[in-house]
Amino acid sequence: MLVEHVATDDALKCFLQRILTDKKIRHEVNQQQLPRRQTAILLYNYCADKQQRNKNDKQQCAFTATMLMVVVMMSMLVMLMLMMMLVTMPTTAVVGMMIVFLFHFTCILKHVYLYFLNTAKVWR
Question: What's the rounded Cα separation, in Å, for the pair 23 and 77?
Answer without folding.
Answer: 64
